[in-house]
Amino acid sequence: xxxxxxxxxxxxxxxxxxxxxxxxxxxxxxxxxxxxxxxxxxxxxxxxxxxxxxxxxxxxxxxxxxxxxxxxxxxxxxxx
Length: 80
What we know:
This protein is an all-beta fold. The protein has one domain. Helix content is about 0%, strand content about 40%. The protein has a four-stranded antiparallel beta sheet, with no helix packed on it. The termini are far apart. The model has no long low-confidence stretch (mean pLDDT about 90).
């Protein structure tokens, strides 16, 4: 297969706040290079022992050049 590169759009939701509770290796979109089937987005939690557990949810958005699978989101619980 010789697929073209695709820019995949995503959004973050949940009780956790980007920049305060976690950081991401990408912000709102990521490009899958031509010929590859996937890429990774890394979430790093920010250490804050005063916070209660929070949730970060990533959902894939509709876009051109790709189709979303049945599973369109991932959920991560961030605990101190």
